[in-house]
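User: Let's play a game. I give you a shape written as tokens, and you guess the letters that built it. Ready? Here's round one.
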């Protein structure tokens, strides 16, 4: 019996009124977060360029590009004060004619892309 009741007790209720960035997180992200992300992105780009000959020899140029160049610049595009999960949720709300959206329990939903595959967001 304990094995069946344990997953139910692990569920977390999300208060939708408090979902998303707050005033404080937006201010901190504006003053501290975004400038540090810019420094990280520029530094990562420089490190990627310096490491490129070595990563080409090692055969992991794609991984180096992803971690040192792509991810830092993608982080700059995150909404102000948002966590990664909040940003993914807001970006998933954009209209797409090929997506069937089934809302399970806001903000959790099931997205079915009629062209490709099933994506479950939480």
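Assistant: Ready! My guess for every position:
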């Amino acid at each position: 019996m304990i094995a069946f009741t344990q997953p139910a007790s692990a569920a977390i209720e999300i208060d939708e009124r408090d979902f998303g960035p707050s005033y404080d997180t937006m201010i901190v992200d504006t003053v501290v977060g975004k400038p540090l992300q810019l420094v990280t992105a520029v530094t990562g780009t420089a490190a990627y360029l310096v490491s490129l000959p070595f990563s080409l020899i090692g055969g992991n140029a794609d991984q180096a590009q992803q971690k040192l160049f792509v991810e830092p610049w993608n982080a700059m595009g995150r909404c102000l004060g948002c966590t990664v999960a909040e940003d993914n949720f807001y970006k998933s709300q954009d209209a797409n004619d090929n997506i069937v959206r089934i809302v399970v329990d806001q903000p959790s939903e099931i997205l079915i892309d009629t062209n490709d595959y099933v994506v479950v967001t939480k």
